[in-house]
């Protein structure tokens, strides 16, 4: 008899504990479901404060020393020209000289291209400038024909634009995107008759930098436009809140 009473008591206790655990599980499950996820957007437009520009020039000659001497003369003309335009000597960088052997090619009777006899050397050098005087370098890149008019075979590239205070811009956008996400989450909770609870999770997207009002595509790893002086940056923040 006593054994039966003890068995019933143990079973009853187990049943009560089981109900408690089940209730706790249901409560926790419902609690995990009572959340809201929202994505906020932060954007900022700014003007580049750093510019880079480069160009290359070359000389051809059958004699290597003569080709190098002629290239050195062109290099001095280019350097003096840039200095005359207000460019600092410390901003002007000349690369090492690239030397290529040239050959006269011809087509044989079977239509194959055949390398013929040596015809001389082609020497090429690159000059590049990095400066915070954006307008000055822009103007220089547009009027580079002045160098060509001096008899120099010069090829100019398009300028590239950068911003040195990007870390500050990113912080401002993160704050803006977070505020945007929270305000939207509060509005959704309010409209559903609930209140926003604790923040459970936050994740940040990659920064995207494009030209303003452009149709540039965003990329998974982040877009970084360097062709436009005016830029627009954007970033997304995803927040997950509990809802009471």
UniProtKB/TrEMBL annotation:
Membrane-spanning ranges: 6-26
Pfam family, one: SIMPL
GO BP terms in the entry: DNA damage response
Keywords for this protein: Membrane, Transmembrane, Transmembrane helix
PANTHER family found in the cross-reference section: SLR1258 PROTEIN
Protein name per Swiss-Prot or TrEMBL: SIMPL domain-containing protein
């Amino acid at each position: 008899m006593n054994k039966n009473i003890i068995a019933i008591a143990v079973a009853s206790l187990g049943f009560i504990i089981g109900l408690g655990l089940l209730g706790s599980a249901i409560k926790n499950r419902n609690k995990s479901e009572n959340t809201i996820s929202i994505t906020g957007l932060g954007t900022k437009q700014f003007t580049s404060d750093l510019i880079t520009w480069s160009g290359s020039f070359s000389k051809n000659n059958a004699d290597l020393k003569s080709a190098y001497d002629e290239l050195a003369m062109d290099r001095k003309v280019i350097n003096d020209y840039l200095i005359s335009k207000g460019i600092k000597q410390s901003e002007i960088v000349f690369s090492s000289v690239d030397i290529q052997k040239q050959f006269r090619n011809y087509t044989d009777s079977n239509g194959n291209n055949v390398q013929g006899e040596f015809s001389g050397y082609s020497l090429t050098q690159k000059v590049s400038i990095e400066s915070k005087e954006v307008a000055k370098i822009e103007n220089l890149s547009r009027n580079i024909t002045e160098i060509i008019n001096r008899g120099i075979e010069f090829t100019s590239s398009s300028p590239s634009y950068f911003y040195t205070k990007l870390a500050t811009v990113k912080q401002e956008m993160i704050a803006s995107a977070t505020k945007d996400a929270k305000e939207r989450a509060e509005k959704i909770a309010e409209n559903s008759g609930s209140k926003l609870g604790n923040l459970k999770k936050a994740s940040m997207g990659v920064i995207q930098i494009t030209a303003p009002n452009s149709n540039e595509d965003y990329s998974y790893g982040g877009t970084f436009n360097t062709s436009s002086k005016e830029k627009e940056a954007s970033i997304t923040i995803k927040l997950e809140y509990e809802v009471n």
